[in-house]
Amino acid sequence: MIPRYSRPEMTAIWSPETKFRIWFEIEAHATTALAELGVVPKEAAAIVWEKGSKAVFDVARIDEIEREVKHDVIAFLTHLAEIVGPEARFVHQGMTSSDVLDTCFNVQLVRATDLLLADMDGLLAAIRRRAFEHKMTPTIGRSHGIHAEPVTFGLKLAQAYAEFDRCRERLVNARREIATCAISGAVGTFANIDPRVEEYIAEKLGLAVEPVSTQVIPRDRHAMYFATLGVVASSIERLATEVRHLQRSEVYEAEEFFSEGQKGSSAMPHKRNPVLTENLTGLARMVRAYAMPAMENVALWHERDISHSSVERMIGPDATVTLDFALARLTGVVDKLLVYPENMQKNLDRLGGLVHSQRVLLALTQKGVSREDAYRLVQRNAMPVWRGEGDFLSLLKADPEVNKHLSDAELEEKFDLGYHLKHVDTIFRRVFGEA
Amino acid sequence: MIPRYSRPEMTAIWSPETKFRIWFEIEAHATTALAELGVVPKEAAAIVWEKGSKAVFDVARIDEIEREVKHDVIAFLTHLAEIVGPEARFVHQGMTSSDVLDTCFNVQLVRATDLLLADMDGLLAAIRRRAFEHKMTPTIGRSHGIHAEPVTFGLKLAQAYAEFDRCRERLVNARREIATCAISGAVGTFANIDPRVEEYIAEKLGLAVEPVSTQVIPRDRHAMYFATLGVVASSIERLATEVRHLQRSEVYEAEEFFSEGQKGSSAMPHKRNPVLTENLTGLARMVRAYAMPAMENVALWHERDISHSSVERMIGPDATVTLDFALARLTGVVDKLLVYPENMQKNLDRLGGLVHSQRVLLALTQKGVSREDAYRLVQRNAMPVWRGEGDFLSLLKADPEVNKHLSDAELEEKFDLGYHLKHVDTIFRRVFGEA
Amino acid sequence: MIPRYSRPEMTAIWSPETKFRIWFEIEAHATTALAELGVVPKEAAAIVWEKGSKAVFDVARIDEIEREVKHDVIAFLTHLAEIVGPEARFVHQGMTSSDVLDTCFNVQLVRATDLLLADMDGLLAAIRRRAFEHKMTPTIGRSHGIHAEPVTFGLKLAQAYAEFDRCRERLVNARREIATCAISGAVGTFANIDPRVEEYIAEKLGLAVEPVSTQVIPRDRHAMYFATLGVVASSIERLATEVRHLQRSEVYEAEEFFSEGQKGSSAMPHKRNPVLTENLTGLARMVRAYAMPAMENVALWHERDISHSSVERMIGPDATVTLDFALARLTGVVDKLLVYPENMQKNLDRLGGLVHSQRVLLALTQKGVSREDAYRLVQRNAMPVWRGEGDFLSLLKADPEVNKHLSDAELEEKFDLGYHLKHVDTIFRRVFGEA
Amino acid sequence: MIPRYSRPEMTAIWSPETKFRIWFEIEAHATTALAELGVVPKEAAAIVWEKGSKAVFDVARIDEIEREVKHDVIAFLTHLAEIVGPEARFVHQGMTSSDVLDTCFNVQLVRATDLLLADMDGLLAAIRRRAFEHKMTPTIGRSHGIHAEPVTFGLKLAQAYAEFDRCRERLVNARREIATCAISGAVGTFANIDPRVEEYIAEKLGLAVEPVSTQVIPRDRHAMYFATLGVVASSIERLATEVRHLQRSEVYEAEEFFSEGQKGSSAMPHKRNPVLTENLTGLARMVRAYAMPAMENVALWHERDISHSSVERMIGPDATVTLDFALARLTGVVDKLLVYPENMQKNLDRLGGLVHSQRVLLALTQKGVSREDAYRLVQRNAMPVWRGEGDFLSLLKADPEVNKHLSDAELEEKFDLGYHLKHVDTIFRRVFGEA
């Protein structure tokens, strides 16, 4: 997470101020719940809320205390005692640090996911708009980077939409994975704290109760969470790669918006580079990489060790901030993408009709030619076209074995673009629910 | 995937024979659907089914053809034509290889997942049985490898149960991710094949229709699938690590079953090593590693490139076979685990009551001592115990600042084991639905 | 490792037969060394060598024994005793299984690396040949996929050569990392075996003595080894990606050799796809992935645990066999690559001279224009060219602010291709030692 | 990279101020070299050095310009022009941004590596000191977490020393990988800049000339660099894991230093946890993870794309800062480690002599018993000891089949600790060059 690739709303979730505020709320809610259970005085809970709500937690002071006690939650509680006064001794009763840390981490992840979901909605809206705009804009479909058969630019975007729609659902699942709360004490036995406190806090924070915790909330949840972010990042890479390809000088079917005053290269003033999508490609690599340590975090020793903590202090912000930034950047790219339908048409025409080879193949088999023979006939007329030795339709017409089965008119009919687009509506209906 | 870590049922899913059989079924179903739509003769479909169903596909022959045409599906179709005769020309009409390959791969993954789900059910049953067996077997809970407070061995297993229960649900989600079918032609436009063929085949194979494909089924699905397997593997590592720790010579609270005739070491006849769980730790590393190339597979170029294929030919079998083996091995470990409650009790007693330090701390705060002072008082009586300089309870009783607030009887009451186990039923009910 | 992506010589290194033969040699050398030290009878060593050298180790029989004793080395030793007779009791004296296993694994890795080095030599030779062939074949250099300035195709290959030359050196380093031998007994103390036995075997096997082992050879060595293979694979991916780009329909400057009878697509007979380099891209992902578990293997517990073993049983063959195959495949691709200089020239000309923008920029600054103003002047004449609104040179000539500083002749001189190729010799000399 | 796990000297290398200073030096050296070649006026070079050396580059101002031009090097050059005045137009002549960026990145990596090497020297010195201190402190060697045979604590540290000594050499190799300089212009052809400029700058900066660059320095170098850091991190994890194991309550042979005022747990005042080494375990996971995107960075498109840049902006600092912190923290852990020889002895004695089983086995074979029979005899006397059913030596003495071959005195002699330590000197000499 570096400022260059960060947005303020997501970054704020990971600030010390936000963290200490959530810690306070967890502790204060616990004190209220304990007061309702008669474990601590009700007045104490009231004072904790009153003084703590008004206080600004002093990050530098907390850091100073931590340098002595070498324990962050104790440092916070000590500072809270400075604010709250003697009633502070009723705070954290029967709890362990991880009750606070893990529940807070999950609150932060839930908030982060809510931002990611909003990002995703924005991205989906942008893709949808452009997809309908170019629903019937013909362009060449490519497999292996080689011209295959015609598609539309809208179909490309429909695929992206369907993919990010799946990613949205995955994020919803991932959010559920980590939306839990544990207030279960030193080894998760509730020895010194009633399970009802956990239920109370979970409800207040919009979380589910963790069925069984062992000082910590189990890290398979977080592994699944960060693995999901890695998958989402990979889908970002896919669309980014598509744009990069489309902007290549020889292809030039679409292009990232290039603003006035922008410079593509310090040396070559003619350059307009797909730098945003290249950047997204790199960011995707990073988000993906964070899945691995998150998985290694699962096998904590016995009831817990703290090896996961340093990992999460890094990937918690790093993965969510980077993904938030990437989703927003990709949304901008899609939204403002310059699309060149004429260039698409030019490319479609570039191979002199080769892209219709399958239709000729099928027509031959319909006429009774075996699949193997038909393949051979079509291929032998296609290969010279690659070598610049003629036009595909003319070669086919001139091939006696071909025109034994297919008349010139029949052959010509196979070179119709519209033929390929007849099911675009079907696909759009499947993806968008309308066409 | 190596024989040593493979089980036959899963391995069979990935055999060439199985693959060609599924290919055949996809092609034959497609021919039937095309016949119903009037595109090919109904008799042709009947002959394809009749001859193909009886045939044993000759893997060596198919390989031989592939060496010439350098295309696996074409090789298969050529061989199929040798079996079916002239009607073979109605097979694969309007389809592209990936229609067959991708749908087949998903069928294989679905079958593999069904085995994994069955494995998981077996594992869950074993854990549940042992959890109830040891529901109230006291043992020390450890954080950081250091004695913390008492738990029960059943609670450890309840945590494992809850974790694998989540993994089961993740596998169900992962299965849904990849249970799709695409029969959409060269670039997914259905140019030469009616979408109803896809619907027909999907239904026959128990799959969902892929809403939009681009020759290939999008690989974000598979990335999510293999990432999920990586998370499941990480949970296996967690339980395996627990067993390894429990079997350590100094801990020796549990032990992998050691059979008659088994030898632990070629050099040291006294050895009984947790080799199965160490093995599982390594296998988990492998399954986890496969998530990374699966994610890199997502960003195929344009409508598709074939870089994902070599990856999937390897990780398809490697990840599912290894995970299947690991789940079965772990089930055996849990099922036959030797548990030593007396050693657990011995370890519980080892630190001379230090594990009750929190209760003394809380008791002091209840008496009006500030949290900070109480912590200091308890800690100063705990540290000598680590140095072997006395017994915790006696030291506390002898500390004038402590006994100003807590009588000997009050102190003794804090050293009660039962206190820690009062909520075991609550947790079991949460996890197992009963206690 | 699957047959499709395997070559026999490398696969043979990982066969059970090879493994048992190496095990035998280690044991037999040890017996000889022990005999020379007077620990075992000289005749015993002679008999071991004599009977063992002639024997064919029966893999099925060894597997059968292992099923009972659950220990592979003991199973082998038992089988060896069946072959050698009573003198077998002098075998493995004071050794531990890992002495055999780890030394054998390193012997296998050394042999594998020798094959990889031979592969690399073949690849370097092929690249070198094609680099000199196309040393002065002009082609456009592209940054960000956008035309930048002219290079030659030979320069592209010179870069690849330099990169694989570095990879070769890395392989040499990696070989040295794992070319060690440990015969140090149960925990590496030489308690029951004289260190001179280790020295003797090391010398016989062409290995270095492991300075300190702890039953096992430390796994940081293997982590470094497999990480290095991952880097080599990444370089393969780079060159493969270059070919894939060059073969794109719109670029079409080079192409994988397409054999007679080959079929590019089951549906579209016109297709010629870069399937070999796409395949290499996928294989690179796999080899890279194996680096991660190799690194996780380093932190074995105490003197050793066996979690590394399952990983290595898989990645040992998987990584080396796949990389061997990939290097050989890439060599074939380079060797037979179809290169189209005319298409390169056509692409060079495609942007109407835009690629000379930097030279105009520099010429303007030489005439006293500030860098910022020069940039603006050149950029404003370049951008219309992207929009298809004119020819760069003409636009420049017509710009009064430009021709205030540069005459038409001066401008024309900036559009000279040869200008860019004047240092090709320098670079070739740096890379190849000659030009 | 977060402040909690950062040290100032390493962090400073990655500050914008350092970066701009290096950029300036590269540009200024280039201007000098160009002046010597007569391309630009000597006075211009002098003025650039004079004004630039005194200037403090205004990061905020550069950021402001970048927001407009969207290009970081152009923004810097514009700011430099504000400082230098009209002579600034002679700066960056014939260069491209990557000449500056890549050379600067490598300078930063070289400096970072020099810090890492100094860290490593500190770590090696600490390990060496403690190794000699405990050269003959007996302790149990453990394989699989199970007692094997005696070693010394010094031997454990000797192994760590040898491992980090290898890591040091790997860092030296990694430094050489990235210690290169490229000043070769827009696509690496030196079209607009004489290769002698590159040679001049390389010499001034203590770098080697990059033999062939393509606008960028090839990223296989950086992949190797970051992979190496990942291996070093894995070795850190190994030693950290050893300490964590030794500190376990049941083992308690060593312990991280625990300072006055430190608190191990907010809830349990008795706790002393190995939090530093657990923390190192997590940090190792992070550094290892960064190797993966670094490898994915290798396959840039054609002469370059910029996808590597976002990755490197993150992992450049993240990996080096984290590793620097981790090495320093580990050095502190080793330096101040509390070692408990009495507890080591207690653990050595714990299994009642079982650890001598191999010697009895070997003694029996020396007496003519077959290896298989000897194994069986020893194992049947060892297994009851695990079950707490007697003492190993007594059981052996009472076994008629054993004492047929070995007298009581002979058996007792096999239980001598000193026997295992006779080659400690040999190993120390191998590792440290002295004993």
From TrEMBL, chains A, B, C, D:
Keywords: Lyase, Purine biosynthesis. One of its GO terms (cellular component) is cytosol. Its EC number is 4.3.2.2. InterPro entries: AdenyloSucc_lyase_C, Fumarase/histidase_N, Fumarate_lyase_CS, Fumarate_lyase_fam, Fumarate_lyase_N, L-Aspartase-like, Pur_lyase. One of its GO terms (molecular function) is (S)-2-(5-amino-1-(5-phospho-D-ribosyl)imidazole-4-carboxamido) succinate lyase (fumarate-forming) activity. It catalyses: N(6)-(1,2-dicarboxyethyl)-AMP = fumarate + AMP; (2S)-2-[5-amino-1-(5-phospho-beta-D-ribosyl)imidazole-4-carboxamido]succinate = 5-amino-1-(5-phospho-beta-D-ribosyl)imidazole-4-carboxamide + fumarate. Residues 352-432 form the Adenylosuccinate lyase C-terminal domain. It comes from the Bacteria. Pathway: Purine metabolism; IMP biosynthesis via de novo pathway; 5-amino-1-(5-phospho-D-ribosyl)imidazole-4-carboxamide from 5-amino-1-(5-phospho-D-ribosyl)imidazole-4-carboxylate: step 2/2; Purine metabolism; AMP biosynthesis via de novo pathway; AMP from IMP: step 2/2. GO terms for biological process: 'de novo' AMP biosynthetic process. Pfam families: ADSL_C, Lyase_1. Belongs to the lyase 1 family. Adenylosuccinate lyase subfamily. NCBIfam families: purB. This is Adenylosuccinate lyase. It comes from Chelatococcus daeguensis.
